[in-house]
From TrEMBL:
Protein's name in the database: Sulfurtransferase TusA family protein
A UniProt-annotated Pfam family: TusA
Secretion signal span: none
SUPFAM superfamilies in the cross-refs: SirA-like
Source species, domain of life: Bacteria
Organism: Tianweitania sediminis
CDD domains named among the record's database cross-references: SirA_YedF_YeeD (cd00291)
Family affiliation: Belongs to the sulfur carrier protein TusA family.
Amino acid sequence: MTAEAPEIYDLRGLNCPLPVLRSRKRLAALPSGTILVVETTDPLASLDLPAMCMEDGHQLVSVERTDGGHRFTIVKG
């Protein structure tokens, strides 16, 4: 879970609101500064996860489109 080897959290196949709820719970269990890569297939996650990061004080480093979904790189605040 370091910058060299971030944790990949596979939430593909889950629909709203589960990607946000599970990401929030996973981030709460991690120390500040940890990088978490979240993979989703829910189209609403492209709106919901950035909003969650803003609300909870995490840094959204990048959002990438993948085959069938998105990959979010988040640094826990």
